[in-house]
Amino acid sequence: xxxxxxxxxxxxxxxxxxxxxxxxxxxxxxxxxxxxxxxxxxxxxxxxxxxxxxxxxxxxxxxxxxxxxxxxxxxxxxxxxxxxxxxxxxxxxxxxxxxxxxxxxxxxxxxxxxxxxxxxxxxxxxxxxxxxxxxxxxxxxxxxxxxxxxxxxxxxxxxxxxxxxx
Length: 166
Prior knowledge:
two-stranded antiparallel sheet; mainly alpha; 5% strand; 4 strands; single chain
């Protein structure tokens, strides 16, 4: 039997099952190398606090992530042990070069996805919310491809408008 959504790629049930199996296997491999979503959330907030206020403190991180201070402290200890941040009790958190590089990549990724979603007609505020839900699960290559699409769409708004017609 052939399945598919309106305008989507048609595949047999067996092909779809094989694709799902491959996707889950790839996800497990990626998880072994990837930084966790909660880890990235902490890193992102630390970077943004430092950018906006010049420092990131445990209480501010906890407030922005809506978690307890002890939860933040445990994560910061782990992040420091892994070389992403420098952390001392009662002192502002600082990013290492590794932490700063990854945080800047995350900021770039977020921007690309927000631009893409707004080009699809999603309101900017909603685009930021949607981006928070998907950004942690995309490979660098996927973001680069989306970025090319966005750049082309921004360069030729007439073509983009035509593509968006129903």
